[in-house]
Amino acid sequence: MSSYEFLDAQVSQAIVGSDKKTADELRALIKTLNSVMPAMGYEPVSPDQEEFLAREFEVRNGISMGLGAVVTSDDFEPWLDEAKQNIDPFYWKRYREHLIRTGLPKDVVIKLDDITDKTLGRMGNPRQDRPFDSKGMVVGHVQSGKTANYTGLICKAADAGYRLIIVIAGIHNNLRNQTQQRIDEGFIGRDTGRMSRAGRSNRRVGVGLSDDRNVPVSLTTTIDDFKKAVATTNKSQIDSYKVPVVLVIKKNYSTLGNLIDWLKENSSHGDEEMISQPMLLIDDEADNASINTKYGKEEVTRINGQIRELLGLFHRSCYVGYTATPFANIFIDPDQEDDMWGEDLFPRDFIIGLDAPSNYFGGKRVFIEGIPDDDSEPEFIRYIDDNEDILPLKHKIDHELNELPTSLTDALRVFLVARTIRNLRGQADKHASMLVNASRFTRMQSILRTRLHEVLDDIKSALRVNGAKGAAADLDPEIAELKRVWDDEFSASEFDWPEVRAALYNAVASAKVVEVNSARNDLDYSSSGKQGVTVIAVGGFSLSRGLTLEGLTTTWFLRNTMMYDTLMQMGRWFGYRMGYDDLCRIWMPREAVSWYAHIADATEELHQELRLMESAKATPKQFGLAVKSHPSTLMVTARNKLGSGKKTVAVGLSSSFVETARLVSNGENIQKNRSAARAFISRLREKGYSPEKAETVTGGYLLKTVPVELIDDFLLAWVNADESIPTQIDPLREYIRKRKGDELAEWDVHIATLKTGDLDTSLGWPIVPITRKIGAFDLERGFMSIGGSKMRVSSRGVERLGIPEELALEAEAADREARSLPADTKANHPGKIYREVRERPLIALYLVEIKEPENKHIADHKDFPDKPVIAWAISFPRSASADEKVEYIINTTKQRELFGDPDIDEDEENVDEQ
Fold first, then answer.
1. pLDDT band for position 53 (cuts 50, 70, 90)
2. Which CATH number does the domain housing residue 111 bear?
3. Contacts of 797 (CB under 8 A, 6+ apart)
4. Which residue range or ranges hold the Putative endonuclease Z1 domain (predicted)?
5. Which helix (H) or strand (E) segment is 322 a member of?
6. Which of 267, 390, 664, 788 could form an S-S bond across to 669 if both were Cys, CB 3.0 to 4.6 Å?
7. Does 895 have pLDDT greater than 60?
């Protein structure tokens, strides 16, 4: 442990349980504790590091994390509060101390205590003798601390009486090993990697450093997955289950099969003590491989069946699936049961949503807040548009790679400069990583590693020879390129170029490029010195599921899958970036950015829906049906429900928002839609709605109580793009027709216009068109994706229009409270909250001037529109008959064109092809 880390731990211990300290009190405490460091065997840290630590604690103390939402089954019977008087919280207490000692914010630890209580209380009571088999799901965010959450749950479950705990930790060895290490630190307290043949380890780690009693028995180690022979040998340690028994296993049909066989063999030989114990099964990444897709992937279905069979062996069992991408889990049939495998894994007993702490660097921060509505440069995203001639998105296994795309070498330079700035900020002892995920072939990953190693060596050589020459160093071509990326990315940081240049070589001298895949794993964050590891990790699927890259700062991501869950799980860049989030950069194709933005919106809505379901006291089955029928889920249906050809999907439009983010590009159809908009506005004038009588609102005009017939006629005349699945006209009109006599009889109409610019009166209304980019390659595929990287026509806040101010403020206050946001914090409220209080539906009409994407000369394309095009959006209020659905048609061939085939990595065991 470095001096800085030791001082951090001492300060954490000193402030636990105390009132929040002022800035002066905090700095005085740090200075006092730093002055006595020599007496404890550590060198004092510098004044700069004292100040950096103070600022870190100020950030931590300001961190908040909402309790999330809980949806529970009708037959839930509370038991935990009454049982607590007889529970000794031994394992939880030492884990809580471990979290505080390692710097987790106090508020987050308190909320973790609360949410794990909520989870445990909805599991079966392990002290009751009657059988139970509860099933639940915890929905978090990618890289947001789910492992810490389920480690806390394991500790509490062990305290309550669960005696066999199985953690299924992903489909890769490196993830299983990493998870075992965290269970060692947070629950076992011993380094299982140093076990003797007798199955014991004397090296204390994590929680074992503070209290080494009652050590759980582990039948797996950081080196070895479950093996029947080893488990049988180590079974002698199990003394009537006085301490818990824990296994961390890979999600692999051979491993699961061996474990099931071993349990059956023991029980067949008369030893039923193990299967009589209350068992907790944690399924990490529960959407991956655990789902029964049932259309030909036998290994996947086998894993699903094996998990169900494993649960069925025990008289008292609880299954808790953890995932950040629950879309697939929602599609599990809650009523599906099989004679051989038993009931499927639908979380029928509870679903718990975890709110991310306020310092979480996730999809919302990167793809919603970090991308301006005016299409100016994103805060964190940089585009890859130079790869096709060098490394195409779709390439063969034998593709030759003799050079790297310029964007990749620039990303490497940005990473090295960012590492240097982090060192100057006092983070030299922290790890820093760069991720390169560009191919599913291990051969190509190896070549990429070699090419990056060559570039890194050239940079190091230049810095070693010329880096200390002051301003003259900038004449070196490699150093000049480093200065260029500093100018482009970090010139606004607190350090000027001479300071950065002087520190560069020491910062990056130990940097290395490693390969992480099914063939090899060179990733190692152990460091013998005071310097943190600096690593560029090149890989594929092994880097896409659960594996944590410490201090991830820079990412170059070139993938073509468009499935929700695969994309989100590949988002290894999400997580916590305390003290360096401003230095993080992510390179990816423009089209991928638009999908991530769309997914970030959909995920925010899913968590909001969970909060609404909790307040309505809905059950998990009702929540599953609500999410399953939402238009956003149309994008993931193909993976879990569809085989081939056309299928219909039942979708509910209650409390939904749909917009034409994809438009027809054919000139004749563009003109038909202009005519439809012109006729719509003409009818509005006939009904007495003129610009002079319209209400002026943010973003344009608002007309109220417009008859539904005008909206229906407009939709009837609209030519929808096949690629715009949620705006299919027939289902929309059917939904409206059923409600046109009451709920949807009158509408609000928003006609968007900018405040300044050239007026366009071609529709019969004075409009300054909004400006939106289109996807660079869409015209070649016969459509236009509107809204650039966000793939949005509407601006945020449009769904607030037409709602009485007092109702809007009440909805926003409730949203702040649900997310534990301070009243004075600026918040991007999800549109969902406004739909819940909206009295009338809203249709927004847009006249859109199309703008070319940068560096893509497509204005000469035959389908590039020479005049503004029409787009629209509809915000539906919550319906009193919300369970009624309409049928959407999904063409699976079109799905594959749009989103690509599901990657081979999603469910297969041998995920990285050789």
1. confident
2. 3.40.50.300
3. 698, 699
4. 407-633
5. strand 316-323
6. 664
7. no
Residue 452: closest CA among 511, 520, 517: 511
The string of pLDDT tens digits covering residues 715-753 is 999 999 988 888 999 999 999 999 999 999 999 999 999
769 burial class (0-12, 13-18, 19+ CB within 10 angstroms)?
Answer: buried
Maximal CA-CA distance, the chain? 89
Residue 521 lies in a domain: yes
pLDDT at res. 199: 57
**Residues 580-625: pLDDT tens digits?**
999 999 998 877 787 777 777 777 777 877 887 888 788 887 776 6
| Whether 160 and 35 share a structural domain | no
* Total tally of structural domains belonging to the chain: 4
Q: Strand 695-697 vs strand 770-773: parallel, antiparallel, or unpaired?
A: unpaired
Percent of the chain predicted with pLDDT > 90: 48
Residue where a domain stops, chosen among 327, 344, 375: 327
Q: What is the structure's pLDDT at 912?
A: 45
Residue 14 and residue 138 in one domain: no
pLDDT of residue 24: 83
- What pLDDT does 650 receive? 74
CB atoms closer than 10 angstroms to residue 119: 25
Instruction: Kindly report the average pLDDT of the chain as a whole number.
Output: 84
SS3 percent helix, strand, coil of the chain, rounded to 5, is 40, 15, 40
Q: Among candidates 427, 270, 283, which has minimal Cα distance to 346?
A: 283
C-alpha pair distances (Å), 644 with each of 320, 805, 894, 904: 32, 48, 11, 18
For residue range 238-296, what is the model confidence (pLDDT) as tens digits? 878 899 999 999 988 899 999 999 999 888 777 788 889 999 999 987 765 454 444 44
pTM assigned to the model: 0.72
Find the helix or strand (DSSP H, E) in which 117 lies: helix 106-122
Answer for the pair 680, 814: CB distance below 8 angstroms, yes or no: no
Q: Coil, strand, or helix at residue 99?
A: helix
List own/partner pairs for 484-492 with CB under 8 A and 24 or more apart.
Answer: 485/410, 485/413, 485/414, 485/417, 486/417, 489/414, 489/417, 489/418, 489/585, 490/417, 490/418, 490/421, 490/583
Residues 193 and 146 in one domain: yes
Task: Give strand pairing partners of 773.
Answer: 851
Distance in angstroms (rounded) separating the CA atoms of residues 607 and 356 = 11
* 275 and 214 both lie in a single domain: yes
Query: What type of residue sits at position 694?
Result: A
Task: Using the predicted structure, report yes or no on whether residue 913 has a pLDDT greater than 50.
Answer: no
What is the number of other CB atoms lying within 10 angstroms of the CB of residue 648?
11
Task: Write out the DSSP string of 631-700.
Answer: GGGGGTHHHHT--SSEEEEEE--TT-EEE-SEEE--HHHHHHHHHHHHHHHHHHHHTT--TTTSEEETTE
474 and 555 together in one domain = yes
Q: Are residues 129 and 266 in the same domain?
A: yes
Decide if 314 is inside a domain.
Answer: yes
Q: Are residues 681 and 744 both part of a single domain?
A: yes
Which two three-digit tokens encode residue 121?
A: 């209380």
46: in domain: yes
Instruction: Check residue 426 and give its pLDDT.
Output: 87
Query: Looking at the structure, do residues 37 and 134 belong to the same domain, yes or no?
Result: no
Beta bridge partners of 350: 72, 136
Decide: 412 and 454 in contact? Cβ < 8 Å: no
Per-residue DSSP letter, 521 = B
Tokens of 109: 């630890």
Q: Which domain holds residue 427?
A: 385-588
CA–CA separation, 404 and 457 (whole Å): 14
Last residue of a domain, one of 308, 327, 346: 327
Does a structural domain hold residue 364? no
> Three-class SS of residue 343?
strand
